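Figure 2 data, in text form.
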Amino acid sequence: MTAGRLPASAIVLAGIPALLLSIAAAVTLGPADLSVADVGSVVGHRLGLVDTEVSRIGQGIVLQLRLPRALLASICGAGLGVCGAVLQTLVRNPLADPYLLGVSSGASTGAVSVVVLGLGAGAIGLTAGAFAGALVVFALALLLASVAGGAAGHTVLAGVAGTQLFSALTSYIVITSADAEQTRGVLFWLLGSLSGARWNDVVLAGIVCVACLVLCLARAGALDAFAFGQDAAASLGVHVQRLRIVLLVATALLAATLVAAAGAIGFVGLVLPQAARLLVGPRHRALLPVTAVLGAVLLVWVDVLATTIAAPQEVPVGVVTALVGVPAFAVLLAKRGRVS
């Protein structure tokens, strides 16, 4: 462990109970008066471990509304953090994340096409549409960056261009094909919203997030080599193009799944990997799990803030991540500048 940095295992071991307590606390917050003990009783009763005295209404609030929402928030935070960490390494640019590279924008276009144009149905159809859109915009960004010379900065600029293009396409689809009710729902969802969280969203997003994290951890050594450039990675025996494609597709699938479930949430994938690197360093075997845990805890509390800051009106969670993320990113930039 480098001097001044914390052991990743300690952060993860402390972060997991902190995440569980955060989820339990988040479930208690809202118009209905519920305690952490009530939440534990409801969950224990559902698992067949204890009897519960919580009313049926209370059980419904916990199991059908608040618990899936808190769990989906934690999954989105972890997944977006992992996506950002991997993308920043693959394109060798600390500004890379699913939002800036256009992946979230393309996924939003694909998902909106499914909802508004009726090109699919259900959580799987929504995710498939989002995945197709994410792959298209990411391939476009890489193609534009390659034509421009392939520098790391070109990839981000190409991603910004793709973001603007697909945001315009999304707006065009909504304006020309959606009715008033669909337009309101889509616009709120596009800013990032966990209000529609359901158990099928939690299960699908959780499976994809865990699979992507395991895949990236399995290739942590190769990702470390990527940090020194593709030529250095190839000299160390890494199959550069094959691994690059696999990890890009995996992160695109994860980002698309999260966008389909919760809309486009910015800044999590940008800021969290930077903070994790300051804590544990750049080695991906430590960086990825720490980023996932920090992202999960952060987004649970960001969603709590989104539901309470203007109660009874709910603020889109993407708005809150931007309000929190911009100052945090400015602090990280200043800290990096002093370190360098």
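Caption note: DSSP finds 14 helices and no strands in the chain.
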